[in-house]
Predict the 3D structure of the following.
Amino acid sequence: MSEKIIDVAAGLILRPDGMLLLGQRPEGKPWAGWWELPGGKLEPGETVLQALTRELQEEIGIRVTQSRPWVTYVHAYPHTTVRLAFCHVTGWEGEPRSLENQRLEWVDPANAASVGDLLPAALPPLRWLQLPTTYGISSVGSRAGVAAFLGRLEAALARGVKLVQLREPQWPDGVASPSLHEVLQQVLKRCRAAGARVLVNSVHPAAWWREADGVHLRAADAAKLTARPELPAGALVGVSAHDNAQIIHARDLDADFAVLGPVLDTPSHPGAPTLGWEGFVQGIHDAGIPVFALGGQSTQTVSQALRHGAHGIAGIRGVL
């Protein structure tokens, strides 16, 4: 790894229809012909968003009116190491046009490789874009609460929730009980019909993770691991974290995302210590993976969470 790290701001310019702008590196530049996200190096004294605004004006002639930080990711190329601050660009004036002899294309992020070779550092954010921005966590409690929970789940799925975690550490018959396994079957049936994915908390049996769409590791369980759990292709791994060290460990495990909290006060733990938004920002420093904000989150806090670099929000009451 090169000692000097080059700081780069890269923009995910997404149209309302979900199409993403990619640029092809022109002849004469390293990696000529490969496709990348528009952006460029930070100049001394610039913030990431300032650099992004300047670069996009110079490179493709748009004036950024709305942008927000997302994931910061370090990538080592053979001769250079870059720290890429990926940002969402959600508002701009003008039509993107080639000002540096590069080709531009609007692509579906899920099929971005159809344009040609993508720079290796552009691949992770394209994968992260497939993650929904709302993550619901179960709170069935007991057999008596199953019908009401399934009703709440169906309402959340109808609102567009696409990622759900089964987490029932207090289940009366134990965390591996047949009655809870039946609940998982009911949750899977409803989520699959709605095109949503289900993760099983690591307090529950590993066999259940494989029946579902992956696992959500508790911080203590993640701490015992040195590699990503072996799961079927396409399965997701989420990790709970309470500080930056646990976020970095989640990244080193090659987790798909992490959840950091508690950010704000929650009804279940009134008066307990919280990170606050400043603590959340410190916690996701150089995260290298998307991070959901947890604790006191709801539809009312989404825009605040996104502004502070969260991928989205996770919650029990506020989501399900």
